[in-house]
Amino acid sequence: MSEFTHFDEQGRARMVDITDKKATSRVAVARSSVIVSENIYKNVVEQKNKKGDVLGVAEIAGIMGTKQTSTLIPMCHPIPISGVSIQFEWNTINTGEYELIIQAEVKTVGSTGVEMEALTAVTTAALTVYDMCKAIDKGIIIGETYLLEKS
Predict the structure, then answer these.
(1) Distance between CA 14 and CA 107 in Å, rounded?
(2) Of the listed 17, 20, 131, 137, which one is catalytic?
(3) pTM for the complete prediction?
(4) Is 8 designated active site?
(5) Cα dihedral angle (73, 76, 28, 110), rounded to 10 degrees?
(6) DSSP state letter for 138
(7) Angle, CA 124 vertex, CA 121 and CA 130 arms, to 5°
(8) pLDDT digits (tens, 9 = 90+) for 103-151
């Protein structure tokens, strides 16, 4: 058997068989960030964006992204999601820009983890912020996206 779990003995891609894995409570927390200008920051926090409530829409997008993970990532198992929480926090950067920290916590009871779902949540939320604010300033930067913790 191949040492890589997503390949069979012939080297062909396959979805890992989790049939015999015990269902347990699983949690994953992922984080991403979006760096924006002061103009975008004010636009978002004062809710003056012509496209609507940026953080409200990004929160819903992150939740929807979580639920679509297995259709986007070929080897992900479709799993029942028990809960999704998306949170936002603003930081001032010494360059006069602002950093929006996006964090997602995803929960399930199942035979496989929810890391990919948490990562998809924050990525989808970050892309939504970008999409809703790009008309104001095209200098938006989506920062590092990473898994913060899993259990």
Answers:
(1) 25
(2) 131
(3) 0.91
(4) no
(5) 160
(6) T
(7) 140
(8) 999 999 998 899 999 999 999 999 999 999 999 999 999 999 999 999 9
